[in-house]
C-alpha cells in the first residue's frame, strides 16, 4: 500500500516538473523575443531557473511525503475513535432498551395506581370550581378577601393537586358553612345612591343580606363592592334593619330581622312594589276625585258624629233634671214647650210637643243624606275609572300590539286602582252612615218617648 502511494507521488512530481519546465521555456522564449540579450544569456537564465525550480519541487515532494505519514497517523486515530464510538453506541442502545422496558413497567404501575385517583381528581376540580363561583358571589368574601385565590389553579389544573391544597379547600368550605349561619359586624366601604363612597359599620346576616344604619345593601360580586339600594323597601322592612343595627353583640335576647335567601332578588321585588302614593297616582284624575269624595264624606261624618255625641250627652244630663229645661239641647226644648203649655188641653199639648220634636229632627239628621249619596257615588266613580283605564289599555293594544305587556300596564293599573279606591271609600261611608243614622234615630226616639210620657202625665193630671 505504501509502495503504490509512493509511485503515484513520484509520477505526480515528474508531471509537475514537466509542466514547470514548459512554463519556464515559454517564459524564456518570451523574454528572448522581447529582450536585446544574446541566446547564451537566455540559455544560462533558463538553466538557472530550471535548477531552482527543480530544487523547489524536490522540497515540495519531500514535504508531501512527510505529510503522508502524518495523515496515516490521523487515519489510525480516526479509526480507533470510530471503533470506540461504535462500542459506546452499542452500550447506549442496550441501556436505552433497558430503560424503555423499565419505563413501560413504571407507566403501567402508575396507571394502575392513578386509576382510583382519577375520579377523585375530577371531583376535586368540580368542587373547586363550584366553591370559586360561590365565594365570588358571597358576602363573606368582604371580610376575608383573597381566600379563594388558590381555587383558580386547582379548578384549571391538569394534574393531581398536592395534599396541602386539598386540605385548604376543605378548610375554606368549612369556613363558608360556619359564616353562612352567623350575624357578623365589620367595617367596610359602601357606595351611596349619590355615587359617593363612605366607610361604615356593616351588619351581615349569613350569606343572605347586609345592612348599614337601617338601610339595606346590595353586594356586587363582579366589582366586590357594597352599594345602598337606590330605593329602600316600604314599611315594615326598614324596621327590621334597625333592629339588626341596634342589637347588642353577645346579648342573650333575640331581635327580629330579615333573611333574603335569594341574596337580594326578593328585596329587589319589594323595591319595585309601588308605595301607597304611587298606587294613588296610578288612579289618575278619577282616582283623585274618588279620594276627594271620601275626604268630604269623612269630614261630614266626623262633624256629625261629634255633634250627635255631644247632643246625646246633653240630653242624658237633661233627663236627670226634667224640672229645669235648657234650650241648648233638643230634650230641653221639648220640656220647655211642655212647661209653656201645661194649662192647655191634651191634644194641644200633643201638637206643641210634636212641633218641638219636628223642629229638632232636621238638625239631628242633617248630613246623613249627603253621606249616603257620597257612599253611592264613590263606587260609581270607581267604575268610571275602570272604564277609562280599559279604554287606555285597548288604545295601547291598537297602537303597539300585545307583544310588550308593560305598554298596557298603565291602563290596567288605572282601571284596578280606581275600582279599589271606589270600594275603599264607599264601604266605610256606608258603615259610618249606618252608625250615624242609628244614633240619630235613637235620639229622636228618646225625644218621642219623653214627649209621650209628658202627654200621658198631663192627661192623668187633667182627668184627676
Automatic annotation (TrEMBL):
Major localization listed first in the record, in broad terms: membrane
GO CC terms of this entry: plasma membrane
Subcellular location: Cell membrane; Membrane
UniProt keyword list: Cell membrane, Coiled coil, Membrane, Protein transport, Signal, Transmembrane, Transmembrane helix, Transport
Signal peptide from the UniProt entry: 1-28
Coiled coil region boundaries: 47-95
Gene Ontology process terms (BP): protein import
UniProt keyword annotation of Protein transport present: yes
Record's keyword annotation contains Transmembrane helix: yes
Pfam families per record: MotA_ExbB (PF01618)
Membrane topology summary: Multi-pass membrane protein
Source organism superkingdom: Bacteria
Residue ranges annotated for the MotA/TolQ/ExbB proton channel domain, each copy included: 328-448
Transmembrane spans: 285-306, 373-400, 412-436
Family recorded in the similarity comment: Belongs to the exbB/tolQ family.
Protein name per UniProt: Biopolymer transporter TolR
Organism of derivation: Salinisphaera japonica YTM-1
